[in-house]
Amino acid sequence: MNAPDPVRLARQQRAAAAWRTNLRWTAVLLALWFAGTFGVSWFARELRFDFFGWPFSFWAGAQGLLILYVLMAAAYAWRMNRADREIGEPADEPRDQSRDQSGYEPSNDAGHADDGDAARHR
């Protein structure tokens, strides 16, 4: 029986730790999304104060939440790129896309819009 490769084992442990971090970030960002989206809508009447000359509930619904969503997407992308660097996988590494993970290799006769439908009806 072969002994486990320590380099491969260390990489798997780093990948597992990165995945746990990913799940935590996802949970926090979903909580922010929920609080921002539904919290502002639910408590709109109670949020009656002026913010840059507009009622806060209107401003948050029209502008503030959009800014929050963009910041959330940017923070997630930044963190996932950092996680990729931590486990040793460059985010921009070119991959061979002629095959997918299942080993399927697309044929070279693509280019017809109805190829997918024709293949299903054969």
From TrEMBL:
UniProt superkingdom: Bacteria
Chain segments annotated as transmembrane: 21-44, 56-78
Disordered as annotated region, ranges: 87-122
Positions of the Sodium symporter small subunit domain: 17-87
Keywords from the UniProt entry: Membrane, Transmembrane, Transmembrane helix
Bias (Basic and acidic residues) ranges: 87-99, 111-122
Name this polypeptide is given: DUF4212 domain-containing protein
Organism: Cupriavidus cauae
